[in-house]
Each structure stands twice: as structure tokens, then as C-alpha cells.
Amino acid sequence: MEEMRRHTRTIATVTFVFVALWIAAASDAQEPAKYTPAEETELAMKLSNPLSDLVSVPFQFNWDQKVGPGEDTRFILNLQPAMPFTLSENWNLIARLIVPFVSQPALFEGGSPTFGVSDVLTSFFFSPSRPGAVIWGVGPAISMRSASEPTLGTGKWSAGPSIVVLRQTGPWTYGMLWNQVWSFAGDPARRDVNQMFLQPFVSYQATPSVTLSMSTETTANWESDDHTWTVPIQVFVSKLSSFGPFPASYQLGLGTFVSKPEIGPSWRLRLNMVILLPRRR
After folding, report:
1. Residue 4: φ, ψ to 5°
2. Mean pLDDT across the stretch 43-70?
């Protein structure tokens, strides 16, 4: 099990290497691609759809404020590559990886700050290639025991179902992402994992390249003794632009926590850069 744990810690490095190699291999153009307003709108709407056919590499920077007894700042960089695959004429598979890099202050009096990789979450969504009015995907979510420090992870391997449901009509996108994981292996001295994640979201395409959105990223820890829910309410503005020869989206967001544990943050600042890469078929 310890060998497996060391192996999963390398996922972050492998992911960075994957991104670098993909960019090097795919970059034939020297200038950013030019888009018409209609093409910009189509691309921006795809960015609002977590089940789209885009190969994307989001770099999500989060600054959580007033964390722990010292009310300090926690920094989280989530590297979240997404890769769509064509399984058949009727079905696609969308694979998503979330690799969190965390710089965390002490969470209790006399504790120490920590930095490292937290537990890595992998999700797979099987989705119809020709959806109707409602776009949906379903599959497993797997949380790996990959934290480099005990305070940054659960010490457990966990898995469960994950579902995405959304609809796009006119300039609007609205939907929900849900998963529930239970621990099945790991450190027997650590608390079992029984955790739900719920993310309702809505976005509005204000201009061909500007998107306004709002979401929550609710976590329910059913094993918690003192507090079950963590609920941030967040608003964002995104601008479609470029990153070298690749299209990219830049997002700025602000959130407040309407429910949280005692040592949890009060508000959050988020910067997000999403690089879009050519899809290999």
C-alpha cells in the first residue's frame, strides 16, 4: 500500500509532463487562431459545458482567507486536465483529473503549516455523443490516497458515483455536478470517508468572449462530528483570449462561505486559466 501511495504522488509530475509534451507536439502555429464572433460564442459555450469535446487544461488558483485559529491564508492550485475520448458512434468518455497543490496554515494551536499535494480525484463520465435537450454524463469518481502530508488528505482510497446534468439554451447554461465517495482502503487509524460533493452552476454568455457565471461547490462530510457542510457561493467573469498559439479562457472570481467548519475559510479569491489544446483522434 505504501508503494501505491508513493506511486500516486507522482501523478502531479506526470500531469505536468503530459501538458508540456502535448503543447510541444501540438504547437505548429506561431500565432493565435483568429475567431469570428460566432466561433467565439460557440467556443465559450463549450467551455461552460463540462462534457464538451474540448481538451482543456485548467490552472485554478485559490486564495482562501481566514483559515485556522490564526485566520491565515490557504493557497490551493488545482490542476484539472480534461480529455474526451470517442468510444463508439453513440458514446463518449470524458476523463477529468484534479490534482491539488496546497499551502496550508496551522489548523490548530501549536500546529505547523504544511505544503504539498492533496488527494487526487479522478472522474470518468460516459456521455451520449448526440445528446438531446439535456446533456448528461455518468461514471465513477475515485479519490486516491496521494497526499504528501497527513493533514492534506484523508489517508484513504475512496470511490463512488458521479453525475453531470446540464442544459444550454440561448446564452444560458445551467446544470449540476454531483458525486459521492466512500472509503474502501487506506490507513485504518484514519476516519472513514463518506463525503458528497454538489456543484449547481449557471452561466450567461454576455458577449461572444465574455461569460458571467455563478456556482456553489458544496461539500457534505457525513462523518464529521461537529460540522457537516461547507458551502461557498461564488461569482465569476471569464474572458476568452489566447495563450501563445492556443485559445484560452481567463477567469476572475470571488466567493463567500455561507456554511463552514469553525477552522474553515470565510471568503475566497479565485483566478483560473484554461488552456485549450487540439484534440487527438
Report:
1. -65, -40
2. 91
